[in-house]
Amino acid sequence: MVDSELGRRRKYCKRSCRQRAYEQRALTDGTSIPADAVILSAAEATAFGDRMFELRCAAEDIATAVAEKADHDTLAQLTDELLGRARDAERLR
After folding, report:
1. pTM of the predicted protein model
2. What b-and-e string marks burial along 29-45, b requiring 16 or more CB atoms within 10 Å of the CB?
3. Domain boundaries, the chain
4. Which of 12, 31, 56, 70 has the greatest number of C-beta atoms within 10 Å?
């Protein structure tokens, strides 16, 4: 389905996304949970925290290598590791 140039832009990419949003709103109605809250299980929150720690460590490794004037190959390898950790950190699950 292609968006037309006329009218309002679509808010949801597909019907299933609209359905998930409705379900989320229905679950939080009448609670103190903000409508825009992201709810994670304890395991998901712990895993996310672990990925953030790994990302910070990878960034610190690059900072140390730069301070020690590491060679290009070492910096390239550390940069690849940092990018991999950053990609992992982006996901919530």
Report:
1. 0.63
2. eeeeeeeeeeeeeeeee
3. 7-39, 40-93
4. 70
Task: State the amino acid at position 20 in one-letter form.
Answer: R
One digit per residue, pLDDT tens: the chain, 93 residues?
555 577 888 888 888 888 888 887 888 888 888 877 878 889 988 999 999 999 999 999 999 999 999 999 999 999 999 999 999 888 765
Would you state the torsion angle of the CA atoms of residues 25, 27, 29, 32, taken in this order, to the nearest 10 degrees? -110
Residue type, 63: A
- Cβ neighbourhood burial of 85 (10 Å; 0-12, 13-18, 19+): buried
Written as one string, the DSSP assignment of 27-92 is HHTTSSS-TT-----HHHHHHHHHHHHHHHHHHHHHHHHHHTT--HHHHHHHHHHHHHHHHHHH--
